[in-house]
Specification:
single chain, alpha/beta, seven-stranded parallel sheet, globular
């Protein structure tokens, strides 16, 4: 039997890396795509997958990823993304906003568009990383909340457009996930502020928790479409009601 093929973008760390490992454990050949080749090369060797350097904001890189993936794939996890800045609208750095829209929205759309023929041929699943931020705006989050709301709209429109095609369209919207890089990048490398985001939280989510959700979506029968999974730690009742020690 032909081995199932999964493409994971943003596979060099965090949710992407954990999901690549989890899918490989379930028998997928995983194409690990990210900008940092040193990280994905090692990951691909470890899990028996393939590494493809891909910056999802580069049309040439996305085209190369589609070519490397081939004419049939079973799963695309469009996970590459990130947040930059935590300033209110009045003082927002709009260059940060542009970067967020490029990677989180345009990059996701470009990757899906390029791989859609192979996904259709494989009766595949398109899975994107959204965020609880799309459901619950917060001060300083207008840029990031906006891009994740756009991802939500993108996936909803895509589901309608593919209604008669053998492709599932799914979205995972995580709440607080404690990974080494997300808040650190968002806060410009300020380790103390990044650590404070999760300090005292009673059991924030981990990248492996989200990887379990990815595996659950991938393992459903072809006729089952999980439109969206909103997943938060038990300690996070809402965006601003968080149980801390």
């Amino acid at each position: 039997m032909t081995k199932r093929i999964a493409v994971v973008t943003g596979a060099s760390s965090g949710i992407g890396e954990a999901s690549a490992r989890r899918l490989a454990a379930d028998g997928f050949e995983v194409i690990c795509a990210a900008r940092r080749t040193d990280r994905i090369d090692g990951l691909a060797r470890e899990i028996g997958g393939r590494a493809v350097r891909c910056d999802v904001t580069s049309s040439a890189d996305v085209a190369a990823l589609a070519e490397a993936a081939g004419d049939r794939i079973d799963l695309l996890f469009a996970n590459a993304g990130g947040a930059y800045g935590l300033d209110p609208v009045a003082t927002a750095d709009l260059d940060d906003w542009r970067k967020m829209y490029e990677v989180n929205v345009i990059g996701v759309a470009a990757t899906i568009k390029a791989l859609l023929p192979a996904l259709t041929a494989g009766h595949g699943t398109i899975l994107a990383t959204g965020s609880y931020a799309a459901w619950a705006p917060y001060e300083g989050g207008a840029g990031y909340c906006g891009v994740k709301a756009a991802v939500q709209a993108l996936m909803g429109s895509l589901r309608l457009e593919l209604w008669d095609q053998p492709v599932r369209v799914c979205e995972i919207d995580p709440g607080m996930v404690a990974t080494p890089e997300f808040s650190l990048v968002r806060l410009g490398g300020d380790q103390a502020r990044a650590d404070a985001v999760y300090r005292g939280v009673k059991g924030p989510l981990t990248a492996e928790d989200i990887a379990e959700c990815v595996a659950f979506v991938a393992g459903q029968p072809e006729h089952v479409n999980l439109d969206s999974i909103l997943v938060r730690p038990r300690a996070q009742a809402s965006k601003d009601k968080i149980d801390r020690e």
